[in-house]
Amino acid sequence: MLSRLQAYGDRLRSSLFFVPMLCVLAGIVVGEAMLYVDALVEGIDPRLTATVDSARTVLTTVAGATLTFAGIAFSVSLLLISLASSQFSPRVVHGMFRDPFNKRVMGLVIGTFTYCLVVLRAVRSSLEETGDAVVPSVSILLAVVLGIASILAIVAFINHAAHSMDVSKILHRVTEEALSQARAAWPDPEPESDPPVGTDEDTTLPVGAAAVRFDGYGWVQNVDYEQLLAALPSGTTARLETFAGQYAIQHTPLCHLFPPAPDPEAVATAVRAAVLVGETRTLQQDVAYGVRQLSDVALKAMSPGINDPTTAHDAISHLGTVLSDLLRRRPPARRLAGADGQVLLVPEATTHDQLVGLAFDEVRIASADQPTVLIYLLDVLHQVEQSLTDLVRPGAVASLRRQASMIREINEQADVLEPDRQRVRAAFARRYPD
Q1: What is the pTM of this model?
Q2: Where is region (Disordered) located (predicted)?
Q3: H or E stretch at 188
């Protein structure tokens, strides 16, 4: 249940609707509260009072201006999302939706608009129904303050928006999110041992295991292992056939159970409830997604339409940062036990070797005819290996060296000038003299 709540919380953080909606409600509440305060306040400084006409003019002006500001904010946000998607990668867009500053600015201007509407309806002249003029001076003063704050917020928003398209800031944000998820999903390493990736552990089930199948399709966003174990009958062993970050196809196996459950439909429903499937891939439990995003930025930078090796270098450097942190951590256990003898096998867990391949395989192939990028790759691979020297990581080091060897081989086969080929050879020899 906690994992599902965290997933819903992640959706709310990615929503452009939630914070502005709260600010609209806040505008209504504050407006009503200020009208109540105005009814209690007497003897206001004449400099702060207003006539009915001036009050309506001020409120109408502030409301109209803030609504225009809101339109500008939404337009700029959509423009930035479009540019980031085309220039860097569609997968970095998800993180831009999570930018709290943008949502707060939108919330402020929309909340101010709502507040002005609430106060405006309370302004009445002596010629109207009640016969008494109502001019909530304190409420109008707050509307002016909120209007000025909205102007400053829009200026700050434009400044923030301009700087947010800096590729270094985008890569830094993706890296921070990936590192944060790595710390949450993978525990800290044991001091002097290679992380147990479970490659030799038997995860097979006897013949006759019953399959629980997906009843829908989409990206697996979260697996609540505790809830899944609790859904199994006592003494049941389940082998999970999916993982966070995999695309689920309808009617494909979600897991296999042995022995088969006495009430298969009820157990299947409970098991499916422990696996959250959604429309988009997210960083929830998916440590590989941050690596995928950075790798995509590097690939996009090397595409013929962009051809920006410097951006590729930046992305590869950030890849090294994320990969170094992940290789220092232990992947989650592949065998989990429940309180009543239930056992959950997780053979599809992400391994260190898979992460290294995901980070560098496609980038290496795409940069075959770009010696400068190949040298960047060798440099980052060497730095990541050096970051592991204080730990025993033979599996991770072997994967990194395998990548370096493939870079050397692809350089030998590439259609480049001999001086460029020699540059890559020399770079490899400096970093891997043995």
Answers
A1: 0.81
A2: 182-202
A3: none
